[in-house]
Amino acid sequence: MGTIIIYVHDLRSSGVVRDAMMLADHIAGRHDAILVAGHGEGFFREEAERGRYRLVILKDRPSPAASRITAAQPLRRWLRHQPPAVLLSMGNHGHATAYLACRGLGHVRRIYRISNEVTRGDGLRGALRMHWMERLIADAARIAIVGAALRRAPMLARAIGRGQAIEIASGVDGDHARAMAAAPVPHPWLDAEVPVVLGIGRLRPQKNFDLLIEAVGIARAERRLRLVILGDGTGEERSRLEQLAARAGLGEDFLLAGESSNVFAWAARAGAFVLPSRWEGSSVALLEAMAVGVPVIASRLAGDAAQVLDEGRHGLLVGGEDRTELARAILVQLSGYAVRPGDRARAYGLPGAAYLDLVEAVMAEMDGTARAAA
Question: So where does this one cross the membrane (predicted)?
Answer without folding.
Answer: none
